[in-house]
Design brief:
110 residues; 4-stranded antiparallel beta sheet; mainly beta
Length: 110
């Protein structure tokens, strides 16, 4: 059974955010997917605003003016990666990989 490896521009959603976004990769790790012809992502591609853009408004973050922005607060690398395949010195992301936001959300591939 083959795994589905994630590439730049793969859609992601935070379960506490209102809108989906895509994972960006400003600099390729040097491996391109034969299926999508896009660069393959690794566990270290989790930096807010560089790799992960905001998800609209946050269901958990409330301000006096109303719901706050859903800006990913990520301090750890992606989890549930393929530990048998490394690109750019880190494990490759699969459809099952996820991030945990310190505010309380979980970011997953769609």
């Amino acid at each position: 059974m083959s795994k589905e490896y994630m590439t730049a521009m793969s859609p992601v959603k935070c379960n506490m955010g209102m809108i989906p976004t895509t994972v960006l990769l400003p600099v390729s790790h040097g491996v391109i997917s034969c299926k999508t012809h896009l660069p393959v992502l690794n566990a270290n591609d989790h930096v807010p605003f560089m790799n992960i853009l905001p998800f609209g408004t946050c269901k958990l973050l409330q301000t006096p003016a109303g719901p706050g922005p859903c800006v990913p607060a990520i301090i750890m690398a992606w989890k549930n990666c393929d530990m048998h395949y490394f690109v750019g010195g880190a494990p490759v992301l699969t459809k099952d990989s996820f991030l945990t936001c310190t505010i309380g959300g979980t970011i997953k591939f769609q």
